[in-house]
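Schema walkthrough. Field components (list of strings):
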Amino acid sequence: QICTMSRNHIIKLYYDIISPYSFIGFETLLRYRVVWPIDVVLKPICLGGLFKDVGNPPPVTTCDAKAVYMAKEVQMIARHYGIPLNMPKNFHDYVLKASTVDACRLILATQKLLPDKTEEVSRQLFDRFWIDNLPVNREDDLLSCLKKAHVESPDKFIEKIKEPEIKDQLKKNTKEAQDLGAFGLPWIEVTKAGGGSEIYFGSDRLPIIGEFIGQSYHGPLRHLSLF
Amino acid sequence: HTVKLYYDIVSPYSFIGFESLLRYRVVWPIDVILKPICLGGLFKDVGNTPPAKSCEAKATYMAREIEMISRHFGVPMNVPKNFTGHIMDNSTVDACRLIIATQRSDPDKAETVSRQLFSRFWIENLPVKSDDDLKKVRNLIALKYFANSQVLKKSLITNVAEMLDQVKAEEVKEELRRNTKEVQEMGAFGMPWITVTKSDGSGTEQYFGSDRLPIIGEFIGQSYHGPLRHLSLF
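Field assembly_structure (string):
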């Protein structure tokens, strides 16, 4: 008899801690593993690098009205998904002045040293930046996130992020997203178990992704929120 | 609940927002007020760049995304090969004025005229500019070749010449400017722009884009029922 157990659909999520829509996409997509047969592969990238390489000005800089609306919209969508995101007073300055490059490298270091903790480390970094509104660029910031993620020997991870291999991996992920046509985040690539793939930009595409893989959209699944 | 939809024919996401929102009148207790605006004017006034111009990768993705989302909603949009050229080189100001003219003389037809204009521009990929030189019209038969006269005929409007004249009327031009300024003052920088005022007066919320039906539903205490493709008029 032929084994009819179907493989999961593979979803690659490209994200950066600096991107609030990435936080929303990250939480909601991972939540859907409960109801859809999907595997989610986490791919941190450097959004600043991507913007530069594709010649895209950060959306918050296009015009004042857009920056004002984005700050409102992020909170509205986060609430809809049961994510207690807090918008700092000056959204524009907050995202333009902060660095999350080391934070993304930390996620990569975790993928290398302790892959099962990749999701939790990502979540702690997102929480710190988008709920606590604290920086994630200094060693102490990163140590705090590693401790909250219950990662043992955190100093090993801090050392790891300085290695060329990790820096290269971040560049590789960023180029990978760019080659898929990305110009912003989150960027999602869905490959069906039976073959065929599609790409999506943003955190609003779960209903359409569902249709692509033959599944139903079940709303924000707030009861599955980890907050 | 009162929903105001600000839109421009040139905006593909406006077409998706228009169709999907109007469809939801069947399942939600909403009234939809149509507010055509001039998107080019709005972009200029708020200093925003048309999204298709921000970078090449974005324009490429938008073309693909529009076909994907429109199919999800059962609206058979066609994105021309030269997507950026189509939206940058074709004026829809006359088209929006035509909708306003219809609202003033035959308000029940405003929705159909809007739909015909959207279909012409985004399914047939044909221009929606009125012929500026109506004086060149030797007889009424020549009118049938004008883009917007075809739109009016498909909308079962009989006083075609009169309506095309109205497109040039100062009050109509003024109303388009007024609508555009109205949406700008609400903070709009792009289309579609949707305001929702709850029937008990307990609040108003604003939304940008054609992806917010689930969230709008929650705001007014209703459930989102998906794309409702079986209600598509195409």
